[in-house]
Amino acid sequence: MTSATLRHTVWILRGNPVTAVAAAGAFILCVLAVIGPWIVPFDPIASDVANALKPPSATYWAGTDQLGRDVFSRLIVAARLDLAIAASAVSLSFVLGAVVGALCGYTGGRLDRYVGRFVDVLMAFPLFVLAMAMVAALGNRVENIVIATAIINLPFYIRFARAEVNVRRNAGWVEAARACGDSHVSVVLRFLLPNVLPAMAVQVSLNLGWAILNAAGLSFIGLGVSAPTPEWGIMVAEGARFISTGKWWLVAFPGLALMLTVLCFNLLGDGLRDILDPRMRT
After folding, report:
1. In a domain, 47, yes or no
2. Distance between terminal CA atoms of the chain?
3. Percent of the chain topping pLDDT 90
4. Each residue's pLDDT tens digit, 1-23
5. pTM
6. Based on the structure, what is the number of domains in the chain?
């Protein structure tokens, strides 16, 4: 990051405290995801039935579950898996969708029509149901969850990139690049894509939150990550059985972690747009 970009980022964050809080929350979450397994006070998988279903206390900050496992330790360790799934899926769909959408918007013709029909077919299905079907067919492994989440996110990026490039493909600076001898691929990758990426930043941030919810939802219904792996969706599913008995912490803390994470990424979207958009550099 250059000094000018850093100054611009600081200026944006100072003028928008909500974005600053969201950025701080996302940063803390990412740090916990990286170092979490080494700082948690208890083994997130080891059982201790003698201390099962203990409420939050000075020893167990978020209580214990039905097997005596520390809920706080499981929350911290689960952040790594959920963030890894979301980041991998969104990165895959973003790169593939942006390139394919940009090529469709630039060239038009058969490629645009075929890809457009493919996107229409994907959008015709309820996306979470489509993810359920793919994971059920492929198997509930982490890599299959990433693939399924990436596929259902593809239409957003393809359509967005296509529309943005289609508007700009006949602009003067694009014609100038072609007149200078740049190939069509070079024009798309060097000139058109960098100009649409800031507009896609908001969608990336929103999709990160949605991808985390998707992974947690699949785990909640038994099609995601398998127990005893710490994962927020599994923790909510296991804790739901004890709500009627007053064991509120088993659902409250994983649900709060999900809510705050998704909220941070949603609020971060507008700030990313302002930071990456060159028109905001005044």
Report:
1. no
2. 18
3. 43
4. 556 656 766 766 676 777 788 88
5. 0.86
6. 1
CATH of the domain at 31: 1.10.3720.10
Cβ pair 9, 275 in contact under 8 A: yes
Does residue 30 form part of some domain?
Answer: yes
Whole-Å CA distances, 271 to 14, 15, 22, 94, 213: 11, 10, 9, 19, 21
Q: In 108-169, which ranges are continuous DSSP H helix?
A: 109-124, 127-138, 142-168
What are φ and ψ of residue 163, in 5° steps?
-65, -45
Measured distance CA(120)–CA(155) in Å, rounded:
8
The rounded distance, in Å, linking the Cα atoms of 51 and 48 is: 6
The C-alpha atoms of residue 140 and residue 147 are separated, in whole angstroms, by 11
- Peptide bond connecting 228 to the previous residue in cis, omega within 30 degrees of 0: yes
| CB neighbour list of residue 56: distance below 8 Å, 6 or more residues apart | 62, 63, 249
Asked if residue 250 belongs to a domain, the reply is yes
Confidence of residue 273 (pLDDT cuts 50, 70, 90): low
* Domain range enclosing 187: 3-38+70-280
Bigger pLDDT: 281 vs 265: 265
